[in-house]
Amino acid sequence: MLSVVGLLLALYLVWRVIWPLKLSLSLRGPLGLLVIALALHHRIVARFAGTMASPELPKMVIALLATGFTALLLLAVFVIVLDVLLLAGRLLRARRMADALRAPWLRPSAAVVALLLSAYGISQGMAVPKVRHVEVAINDLPAAFEGYRVLQLTDIHASRLLTGEWVAKVVAESNAQQADLIVITGDLVDGTVAARADDVRPLAELKAPDGVIAITGNHEYYSQYQPWMQAFRSLGMQVLANSHTRILRDGAALTIAGVTDPAAMNHDLPMPDLHAALKGADPDAPVILLDHRPNLARANAASGVALQLSGHTHGGHIVGMDQLVKRYNSGFVSGRYEVDGMTLYVSNGAGLWPGFAARIGVPSEITVFTLRRRVAPTGE
User: Fold this and answer.
1) Do the Cβ atoms of 310 and 294 come closer than 8 Å?
2) Of 317, 264, 312, nearest to 292 (Cα)?
3) Is there a single domain that holds both residue 83 and residue 144?
4) CA distance linking residue 201 with residue 167, whole number of Å
5) Number of structural domains the chain divides into
6) pLDDT at 380 over 50
7) What is the pLDDT of residues 30-64, one digit of tens each?
8) What is the dihedral of CA 147, 241, 349, 211, to 10 degrees?
9) In this structure, are 314 and 172 located in the same domain?
10) Is the pLDDT of residue 150 over 90?
11) Structural domain includes residue 205
């Protein structure tokens, strides 16, 4: 689908931007082919260097391809808006408006703006995430957990773009927060265990008194699921797959539950099952659920979850694009939501997939949650 949409947009841009340029055919032809190649570069790279999920190319090559592809998408939006306005001007017989929108310099100028915005977006996508602090009140939280701090990492996407050097900086920033518990809510990697060995090694340095707990995202299923589960455990993580664990303090408990990802369906592996994850859980312990996708938040709230931590959406990547992304995620895309008495937090993520590596107005994040006790009203 991505390739089909990209190709249609590329052809539209060749028609509306490249072909009208006052250049020789020997220049317009290769320029048009370049635009089409950028639109199809995921498929081309997958044919010769890795996969769509994990392009195995030098970092700067991936960054350049990502810049070109993002510029193509932004320019398509700009040109479509200009053409809609041009059509409106013609229908309304607003000659001055229509003449301005036909100016030969307008669309090439839009291309320059799109390229500059894209370069900025890729630089932000590759930046080390900043720390965001969030307080969450939980009904009848045991007093022993008042002020308890949980650090969430999600969508790290270790790759040839976001390499071990970048991951090490994320780990150092995370450890500096001195959280009580670190959780990772999926999409840790892109690529095989062998290809990413050096890039994920810094994750072994994550430290917290109550350990590091991880779940899978959809990208773990795209390459060597079982070997990755073993690799994560060898890095010191406790991996929850439709299961839970207890955090104990002064005789009180928190339940940390984790579910798998729906991508398991295509690999004959267990689908997400909150009932199985909570089987045997302490009924008096508040439940924090790790679920890579936010889609099932309402059902999870009905099952008694107090706090759900998710990712997957990357916050929508670009301001305005969140309106599209939330349609595929039950209306949830970024930040805090109150869902039927449960707090849902959807992190923008620490990293992103190399195939669409732009962030414009949607910064990456490392999130630290401080738990607060809220006494539930009588009868609740």
Assistant:
1) yes
2) 312
3) no
4) 9
5) 2
6) no
7) 999 999 999 999 999 999 999 988 999 999 999 99
8) 40
9) yes
10) yes
11) yes
Distance CA 322, CA 343 (A): 20
37 and 178 in a single domain? The answer is no
Question: Residues 361, 364, 370, 372: is their CA dihedral positive or negative?
Answer: positive
pTM for the model? 0.94
Do 242 and 323 belong together in one domain? Answer: yes
Residue range 218-238: mean pLDDT, rounded: 95
Phi, psi of 55 (to 5 degrees): -65, 125
> Please, what is the Cα angle at 247 between 246 and 249, to 5 degrees?
135
- Does 334 fall in a domain? yes
DSSP H or E stretch at residue 212: strand 212-215
The per-residue pLDDT for range 180-220, each reduced to its tens digit, is 999 999 999 999 999 999 999 999 999 999 999 999 999 99
Q: What is the pLDDT of residue 6?
A: 87
Structural domain boundaries enclosing 56:
2-125
For residue 193 the two structure tokens come to 């265990």
Strand partners, 156: none
Whether residue 137 is found in the same domain as residue 117: no
340: its two tokens: 């039927």
Q: Which of 98, 125, 152 is the last residue of a domain?
A: 125
